[in-house]
């Protein structure tokens, strides 16, 4: 039968090996916060380039589309990409505000807010953006398969719509589930800390 | 070596092993503990100028480590303690190795915050320092540590009896 002081003695021999300072600073492995921030920045750059290309292709390249609706489709597509781009910039701003030197409760609260906002985006705004994206793709479909006989065109159009909506639904559902898991875990830790 | 690098090296040599123990007690995995320790010191290095001297460097480093642990979301929560992780530690003899393994196993049975609190206490941080790290009142810490000590001893004895 051991007392707590015996456990302290056992602990006192607990010496783990760590790398030397120069070694670990030399092999700088970026932390998850920086990685997350970098991901958003890269995605923002990608989205910006795509949106600019779409606008150029639709309105400045001089290409004339057969169907008037194609212009609306490209404009809608660019707007959706810009919305996602601004959301990404907002996330980068939120991540930049996370300060690891804060008291744990405050720090966790910042994380919770970040995940809450992301969850809200995935469950409320993302489906709307997804519908607009699907709609804009669908509106562009006539430009691609509009020359085929009517029956093929209509079948292709319906098939495309179902496919795009199904994929968006699956991706959205998966993303929302993952966000909920992360948020619940952070909430649990936050509540444990609040009890102290 | 400039003044900051010198001070940083000193802090690293003094606390890296303790921070790793803290992270290991929390995550149950030596690889994850390694990563979290590295991230803690990288973050400390990055924010070295932010240290305002309101607390000691010790509490400051521990605070970063605690934040790293708490925001660490485990992919596989049910991972069992790997005995090889303990064997890789520099322990004096087999008996100590077994006891240490049991102690880590017992710590892992505590809730997440309690794991961190008791590890800091075992590493001889004072109530005041632990309270400062967690940003909670010293009195609450004293009461909580008393409760954790009893619980941990009970779990340890139960494991030892098996």
Explain what the structure shows.
The complex is a heterodimer of chains A (196) and B (162). Chain A is mainly α and 196 residues long. Chain A has one domain. Helix content of chain A is 82%, strand content 0%. Chain A has six helices and no strands. In chain A, helix 3 (32-60) packs antiparallel against helix 4 (69-97), helix 4 packs antiparallel against helix 5 and helix 5 packs antiparallel against helix 6. By secondary structure, chain B is mainly α. Chain B has one domain (3-161). Chain B contains eight helices and no strands. In chain B, helix 2 (30-46) crosses helix 3. Chain B is globular, with a radius of gyration of 16 Å. Chains A and B meet through helix 1, helix 2, helix 5 and helix 6 of A and helix 1, helix 2, helix 3, helix 5 and helix 6 of B.
Strand proportion of chain A:
under 5%
The Cα radius of gyration of chain A reads 25 Å
Please indicate the percent range of residues of chain B in DSSP E strands (runs of 2 or more).
under 5%
Distance N to C terminus of chain A: 29 Å
Mean pLDDT of chain A: 83
Q: Look at the structure and give the mean pLDDT of chain B.
A: 83
> Which spans of chain A have pLDDT < 50 for at least 5 consecutive residues?
none
Largest sheet of chain A: none
Counting DSSP H or I runs of 4 or more residues, the number of helices of chain B is 8
Total strand count of chain A, please? 0
How many domains would you count in the coordinates of chain A?
1
The biggest beta sheet of chain B reads:
none
Helicity of chain A, as a percent range: over 70%
Give the overall shape of chain A, derived from the CA principal axes: elongated
Largest interface: A-B, 42 and 59 residues
* Regions with little confidence, pLDDT below 50 for 5+ residues of chain B: none
Helices and strands of chain B, in order, run as: HHHHHHHH
Secondary-structure-based class of chain A equals mainly alpha
Treating each run of at least 4 consecutive H or I residues as one helix, how many helices of chain A? Answer: 6
- Number of beta-strand segments of chain B: 0
């Amino acid at each position: 039968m051991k007392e707590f002081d015996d456990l302290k003695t056992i602990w006192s021999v607990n010496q783990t090996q760590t790398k030397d300072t120069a070694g670990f600073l030399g092999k700088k492995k970026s932390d998850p916060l920086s990685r997350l921030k970098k991901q958003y920045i890269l995605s923002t750059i990608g989205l910006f380039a795509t949106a600019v290309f779409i606008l150029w292709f639709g309105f400045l390249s001089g290409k004339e589309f057969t169907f008037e609706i194609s212009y609306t489709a490209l404009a809608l597509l660019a707007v959706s990409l810009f919305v996602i781009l601004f959301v990404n910039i907002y996330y980068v701003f939120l991540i930049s505000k996370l300060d690891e030197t804060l008291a744990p409760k405050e720090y966790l609260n910042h994380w919770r807010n970040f995940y809450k906002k992301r969850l809200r985006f995935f469950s409320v705004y993302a489906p709307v953006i997804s519908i607009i994206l699907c709609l804009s793709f669908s509106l562009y479909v006539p430009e691609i398969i509009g020359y085929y006989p009517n029956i093929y065109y209509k079948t292709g159009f319906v098939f495309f719509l179902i496919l795009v909506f199904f994929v968006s639904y699956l991706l959205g559902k998966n993303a929302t589930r993952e966000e909920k898991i992360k948020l619940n875990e952070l909430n649990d830790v936050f509540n444990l800390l609040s009890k102290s | 070596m400039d003044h900051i690098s010198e001070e940083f090296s000193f802090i690293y040599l003094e606390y890296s092993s303790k921070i790793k123990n803290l992270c290991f007690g929390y995550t149950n995995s030596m690889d994850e503990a390694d990563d979290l320790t590295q991230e803690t010191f990288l973050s400390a290095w990055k924010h070295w100028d932010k240290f305002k001297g309101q607390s000691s460097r010790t509490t400051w480093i521990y605070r970063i480590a605690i934040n790293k642990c708490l925001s660490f979301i485990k992919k596989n929560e049910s991972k069992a303690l790997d005995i090889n992780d303990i064997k890789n530690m520099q322990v004096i003899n087999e008996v100590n190795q077994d006891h240490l393994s049991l102690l880590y196993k017992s710590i892992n049975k505590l809730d997440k915050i309690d794991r961190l609190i008791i590890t800091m206490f075992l590493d001889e941080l004072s109530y005041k320092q632990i309270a400062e790290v967690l940003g909670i009142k010293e009195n609450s810490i004293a009461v909580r540590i008393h409760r954790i000590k009893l619980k941990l001893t009970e779990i340890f004895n139960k494991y030892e009896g098996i």
